[in-house]
Amino acid sequence: MNIKRIAVYCGSSLGNNSIYQKEAIKFIQLLRSKNIGMVYGGGNVGIMGVIADEMMRLDGEVIGVIPEKLMQKEVGHTGITQQIIVQNMHERKAKMFELCDACVALPGGIGTMEELFEAFTWSQLGFHYKPCGVLNTNGFYNPLNDMLQHMVNHQFLKQEFKNMLLMDENAESLLTQIENFEFPKVLKWY
After folding, report:
1. Spans of the chain below 70 pLDDT
2. Residues 6+ apart with CB under 8 A from 37
């Protein structure tokens, strides 16, 4: 798979451990070393600001997509390659996904989960064939992995669909999985 740009979903906070910031920077450095650009939520705060600043420092491509209301609250990044201002969160997610070849969630909050799960759901339904991954920094997403397995165990999610959400603590390994990912030939979710 030829990955030119990855949508990165992440927090507008830095979290409570500096490892989240450090690993986010390493992930961006990895993307840049492979000449992969990024699209993200357009903010200049938290992990969002950290990854945008790092990619710009490395002269990489950074496309932000931010709702007008958030731009007006001065959380929009003004020093990136391109900032696309949209009307609402629905347009933001659709535009981010349109511009990417894959998506990866770094640690974040409710918005990160919502963005990830929408993209993941679309893949399960066969609406797209873009890999979805999770960088499991510091075991942050272990509870999510457990919850997904719980859904499988109770037959609300098929194992092959759970396996479509790529998860790894190592950025290089995760990116390799994304680059080599093949969707199941038959998608039947019911």
Report:
1. 74, 186-190
2. 4, 5, 6, 31, 55, 60, 61, 62, 63, 81
